[in-house]
Design a protein that fits this description.
The complex is a heterodimer of chains A (157) and B (69). Chain A is an alpha+beta fold. Chain A has a single domain (7-143), classed as Beta Polymerase, domain 2 (2-Layer Sandwich). Chain A is built from seven helices and six strands; from the N terminus they run H-E-H-E-H-H-E-E-H-E-E-H-H. In chain A, the strands form two sheets. Chain A has a four-stranded mixed β-sheet, sandwiched between helices. In chain A, strands 5-6 form a two-stranded antiparallel sheet. Chain A starts with 6 loop residues before the first helix and ends with a helix. Chain B is elongated, with a radius of gyration of 17 Å. The two termini of chain B are 25 Å apart. Classes of the chains: A alpha+beta (157), B mainly alpha (69). Strand 3 of chain A pairs antiparallel with strand 1 of chain B, so a sheet runs across the interface.
């Protein structure tokens, strides 16, 4: 079982992805938590730009972070499949190349914010993604997350 | 968008905002084994719809990964 995700690892992602030029955004509950949302989650969700160049940069950055990717798995990431789940690295990671509810990476990147060096989706994109996914666990979490959105954009801090 | 005016939630948001990010992350990320999902070291799906269908067919419904319980 991988270690629990920590601040240090979020920093390492930002640093490694920055060095390799990976275009990424924290998404999902992990993204909301980085924005200040008080809740718990198990893994980091990263929205990564779907392009051959970004796929190659991502594979290199994951190797830098200590993910011992096999050749087969490297190829799957290079193919930029819509959803990739990695459970054999230093921490659990979900790579989302085409999240529900968000049209393009470019648009999300324009709206995104930087939190202590980490690129994070705008709270509205996190909400849109969860609304579009429409899973039971998303529906359960949406009322509180919407309340957080209103608090945050209302100048909550 | 819908707003839940719950005072308790607002107090939680305000309390979280008073803590540094490093401390918040320390308590936000937990580690428990999720059945099925954590059973394989690597999975990939061509489309999100394919992933959603796989979750509904394979992941225990009580984990909430499906669209219905």
């Amino acid at each position: 079982m991988a270690a629990r995700f920590e601040y240090r690892q979020a920093e390492e992602i930002a640093a490694a992805f920055g060095r390799r030029g990976v275009r990424y955004l924290f998404l999902g509950k992990s993204g909301a938590i980085l924005l200040g949302y008080p809740d718990t989650t198990q893994d980091a969700d990263l929205f990564v730009e779907k392009s051959p160049g970004n796929g190659a940069a991502l594979v290199a950055a994951l190797a830098d972070l200590g993910f011992p990717l096999t050749e087969v798995h490297r190829r799957e990431i290079l193919a930029c499949k819509d959803f990739v789940q990695i459970r054999y690295g230093p921490f659990d990671l979900d790579l989302v190349f085409a999240p529900d509810g968000i049209e393009t990476f470019e648009e999300a990147d324009r709206r995104a914010v930087t939190v202590e060096g980490m690129r994070v989706c705008h709270i509205d994109d996190i909400l849109r993604s969860k609304e579009a996914a429409n899973r039971v666990k998303d529906r359960e979490s949406l009322p509180r997350l919407r309340s957080f959105r209103d608090w945050l954009l209302g100048g909550g801090k | 968008m819908d707003t839940d005016p719950s005072r308790e939630w607002i107090e939680e948001f305000e309390a979280a905002a008073r803590r540094p990010l490093r401390e918040r992350l320390k308590y936000a990320f937990i580690r428990t084994r999720k059945p099925v999902i954590d059973d394989e070291p690597f999975r990939s799906f061509d489309t999100m719809e394919e992933y959603r269908r796989w979750c509904e067919a394979n992941v225990p419904s009580w984990l909430g990964y499906g669209r219905t319980l």
